[in-house]
Amino acid sequence: MKKIIFLTIAISISEFLQAQQIFLKKEQEIQQTVIKMFQALSDRDSTTLKAYCARDITLYEYGQIWTIDTLIRKAITMNQSADFKRTNTFDFIKTETDKTIAWATYRLNSTITKDTKETVIQWLETVTLVRQGKKWKVKHLHSTLLKRS
User: Fold this and answer.
1) Gap between the Cα atoms of 90 and 95, Å rounded
2) CA torsion sign, 47 to 48 to 49 to 54?
3) Of 83, 87, 85, which is closest to residue 115 (Cα–Cα)?
4) Residue 7: what pLDDT?
5) Could you confirm whether domain 2-148 is CATH 3.10.450.50?
6) pLDDT 10s per residue in the chain (149 long)?
7) DSSP 8-class letter at 31
8) Distance (Å, whole) CA 110 – CA 145
9) What's the confidence (pLDDT) of residue 62?
10) Cα 35 from Cα 110, distance rounded (Å)
11) Where are the domains of the chain?
């Protein structure tokens, strides 16, 4: 009898762990979309940036509402310093999803070098993503500046 109970518990735990792995894979897929979007910004690659964004993306930055064109103008077009370099690190706080919508909250730490000056900026951000075909796209991004040095 003890063996049957133990076996039942082991199978139940095994099924639970498999469900968690599937969820973690979905989480990572969403997080990778966000990371790759910011890598495109770092690379100043507007084509790749657009590939990770919904066509009608809205960004809430510094009390303003931006479109993809605003982001490209401010982060890429106006940013042509020869020594430009941006590295991003993410601390994902929470990532959730259902079939066609997802959201993630994270801390973003960016080190930006421009015109020989290095600046470190920290944000707290929340993104909403939509499923388009087989890919996740960033639909909304809300950013709160935490620290700039």
Assistant:
1) 13
2) positive
3) 83
4) 47
5) yes
6) 555 554 445 455 444 444 444 558 899 999 999 999 999 999 999 999 999 999 999 999 989 999 999 999 999 998 888 999 999 999 999 999 998 999 999 999 999 999 999 999 999 999 999 999 999 999 999 999 999 99
7) H
8) 11
9) 87
10) 12
11) 2-148
| pLDDT for res 17 | 46
Say how many C-beta atoms besides its own lie within 10 A of residue 113's C-beta. Answer: 14
pLDDT at 70: 96
One-letter amino acid identity for 109? N
Residue count (the chain):
149
Token pair of 93 as six digits = 């706080």
pTM of structure: 0.82
Paired tokens of 21: 């792995």
Nearest-angstrom CA–CA distance, 118 and 94: 29
Distance, CA of 120 to CA of 101 (rounded, Å): 31
CB 127 within 8 A of CB 34: yes
Strands 135-148 and 53-61, sheet pairing: parallel
89-92 CB contacts, 8 Å cutoff, 24+ apart: 90/31, 90/34, 90/35, 90/38, 92/27, 92/31
